[in-house]
Write a structure and sequence with these properties.
The complex is a heterodimer of chains A (about 130) and B (about 180). Chain A has a four-stranded antiparallel β-sheet with strand order 1-2-3-4, covered by helices on one side. The radius of gyration of chain A is 19 Å and the shape is elongated. With about 130 residues, chain A is an alpha+beta fold. Chain A is built from four helices and four strands. In chain A, a hairpin with a 2-residue loop joins strand 2 and strand 3. In chain A, helix 2 packs across helix 4. The longest helix of chain B is centred in the first third of the chain and has 9 residues. Chain B is globular. The termini of chain B are far apart. Classes of the chains: A alpha+beta (about 130), B mainly beta (about 180). At the A-B interface, helix 2, helix 3 and strand 4 of A face strand 14 of B.
Amino acid sequence: MILVIKNFLLTNLDFITCLIVLNRQNNRQTKIAQKLNYLFGQASGNPQTIIRSKEMLRLLESVGIFDTPENRNYILNYLKNIFYDQTNIMEIQTDGRVIKDSLLIGKQGALRMQTVWSDDKLITFFLKKGDH
Amino acid sequence: MYLTFNNYMIEFKEYSNQQEMNQCLKQCDLGSIILGKELPSPDQFYVAMICPKTSELHYFGIGICAESYGLKPHSLLLPQSNILLFGFNNQVVGININQREIAFKINLNSLFYYFLPIRERQIILIVQELDIVAINEEGLELWRYGKDVITETILNGDNIQLNFMDESPTCLNILSGELVKV
């Protein structure tokens, strides 16, 4: 029985690897999607969290990125590209978190976006006006 | 409006640009300190004007340059040690009011949110966007912990429960920072 399982795994190693990668990508996408509520002003909890969330929405709207399904999809794909880009690392903190730097283009301007990652998990964002 | 702190009166002011902040600090005949001047693009400027309760009017100034992110700096008075704590951006700075100098500086791994003093334990919890740091009143760091956006802090005796945005809650012992089983 063990031999059968072993043979199956060896024969289908590429397929199984592909499934694992896809599963991890889906998990990462789900976690990024959860953080979009934070980015689009819908966070709850302590006052500072709510204030931060609403401020990020204000900045997004200032460059023409309003909370719509299309824009959420745009941001989701944008964040996935940031994750896979190895050239945009701005800083690796002492606690291991990675800060990545990017430019987010909206219909009415641009924002500097810094994203904070822990391994493959998106933790938080910093948004600044384009001239900062 | 003034705040009384030991033998001092403190007035907090907010300015729209660094030039106005500097102009205010120039009036301080007892000297001044500027915090956050290393920040690349500050957009918030504050001054704490500290006036000793003497027969004449003298001022010591503490200027703060900060980046907004929608948040404002916080201040916490520690009367026992004559320390005035300021929390903003990624740092907490303790100023000794008597010596008129920086007593300590704590670098944070995420944005400062608020102070949570635990007076009976002489511990100050520094709550941030992603982390929590415990220090004593001399500025010695006791422990730090963080894993995701903190949405709520709940004190329960010697424990603190942290609720996170995308992670399961964590309970820590305030004194040691060790995980406590809920």
